[in-house]
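Table S2 (text version). Query chain:
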Amino acid sequence: MKVKVEKKSILDIEADAIVVNLFEGVKNPAGVTGIVDKAYKKIISDYVIKQEKFEGKYGEIYVLPLVKENKKIYVLGLGKSDEFDFVKIRNLNAKLIKQLNSKKNIKKVVSILHGAGIAGLCPENCAQMITEGIISGLYCFDKYKSEKKEINVKEFVIAEIDDDKFKKAKKGVEKGLIVAKSVNGARDLINESAQYLYPETLADYAVKNSGVKTTVYNKNQIKKMGMNAFLAVGQGSVHEPKLIHMEYIPEKKAKKKIAIVGKGITFDSGGLDLKPPASMLTMKDDMSGAAAVIETMKAISQLKPNVEVHAIVATCENMPSGSSYKPGDVIVAKTGRTIEIDNTDAEGRVTLADALAYAEELGVDEIIDIATLTGACMVALGTVASGIMGNDDGKIKEFISIAKQAGEKFWQLPMDEEYGNSLKSDIADTKNTGGRMGGASAAGIFLSKFIAKTPWIHIDIAGTAYLDKANAEGIKNASGVGVRSLIKYIAG
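Corresponding structure-token output:
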């Protein structure tokens, strides 16, 4: 579907549906909604508001058929003006496009630039969020279904006559398309069956789709690097592990150098500490962190920020077999630190230990890892917020603030040294896990031992990566969480 901005009055664009809006409690529409109201003989103020009692509460959509013109006016409730923000724009448009697309006779839609009028929000950000909402709202993973989802709406036009707002809105649409397609790309990767998405195919995808220089290392090369912890996790699978390194180098001197590391377990059976069947069912999603960083790089390659970015994915399968790593094994990680395997189902942190060490050797200014790491984080925060922790409170707070603008929620979890007491080993430097209590923080402590001095943020998306119920955008299953926040943090 095509999304664009036209420098015309909303009334001068031929369309099957006109989209306007109302804040809660407004009786006499102003702005563009007021213009449409007057053009149609006060049909919104006299009929929709007064007779039909439409209040403009957030999320309400009133559909007004114009029989003579064979078109419809969609009136969107924006809610209370002092509570309105960019994220509500995105979520509301995701809801709207689902409703519009359900009508086979609606091929072209023209809309107000929501938020840029009376609300006074940045036109570029408003247009970006409208675009993200539309593209996200149409998302469907129907690759393996005989009956595919039909896209009835072919064109969505944002009307804006003000020259400055028009120029900013065009930029917003362009950026919104880049971000939304990357989010949907991550969703596709995560929703893909593990029988088709395994380390080799994930690496091939990164090479073909990341848009940046991508190097893939094989098992022998990984072994020469001393990444024994990573290799141990993957040694029970018939699929060879792969180390993926994606690089974006800006044309000008970079203002900073950052590494993003994504957990890449393409399927997690739990290994010899086998998961219960119900817990294993969605474990194709254990590479959600990898999907996030690959798709972030795809967006970065197009947005071209003045930041040097390295994305690292240590990808493998955690499978039970005669060659699997075992409880009680002692592994020497890339840093030389030894790990006693207490549970083979705490495998993500073991792969990340080597991936983080590899990232730090690149001499970056900061490192961010993102992983479906602990059930403990899921228990603590549910599906609403992702956990975040690290060794730099300032950067953590900055990331949380920026992520909020992107519409993603993060909650800082503690990393007091006491949480690491359960990881103490009698025979090695550390155990890979130590019990259920404070498990998310203990995992953070474990990872911190493989970072020497670089500022580092750890993001646990165990509860937010894969959803049993639809979220505010109407997205179920793979959410693509983290992509928007990483893009916003790196590229603005």
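Notes on Table S2: The longest helix spans residues 163-191. Residues 2-186 form a domain with the Leucine Aminopeptidase, subunit E; domain 1 fold (CATH 3.40.220.10).
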